[in-house]
Amino acid sequence: MQLDAVNDPSGLAPTGYHIPSDTEWNTLSDCLGGLSIAGGKMKETGTTHWTSPNTDATNSSGFTALPGGARWDDATFGKIGEEGYWWSATQVTVNSNTNNALIWCIISKYGIVGNGGYIKPGGFSVRCVKD
To answer: What's the Cα-to-Cα distance from 109 to each of 33, 46, 90, 123, 131, rounded to whole Å?
Structure first.
């Protein structure tokens, strides 16, 4: 059985909120100066949660990104403290597989933010946006 919590009609996000689309993630990134610097502006500062070096972290956006790591599609966990991943509500096809959605990633040793498709059985953080 495929669990697709992000787009489940019963609603992962509380009333008055939604899971951001890839377009909304891109808008946020653009407003923060683009992919090459937006990650640093979204990361919590210091090394209480992020491993060193927490490059370019200023949290000037107030997003306070934390490195929750991931649950990979093979049921293993990794990257806690090093990387943060967030689902978007945008579904994509990767290598003819339609069971994917776009995720966004921030990494401790870089100030960038990036995205890519990942298979839905993976487990990542979710950030809700007010409607």
So the answer is: 18, 12, 27, 22, 33
The predicted model scores a pTM of: 0.89
DSSP state, 45? S
Answer whether the bond into residue 53 is a cis peptide, omega within 30°. Answer: yes
User: Residue 91 in contact with residue 79, Cβ under 8 Å?
Assistant: no
Domain edges within the chain: 16-130
Coil, strand, or helix at residue 27? helix
> What crossing angle do the helices spanning 22-31 and 35-42 adopt, rounded to 10°?
90
pLDDT tens per residue across all 131 residues of the chain: 344 666 655 667 888 998 999 999 999 999 999 999 999 999 999 999 999 999 999 999 999 999 999 999 899 999 999 999 999 989 888 888 778 889 999 999 999 999 998 888 888 999 999 99
Are the C-beta atoms of 26 and 116 separated by less than 8 Å?
Answer: no
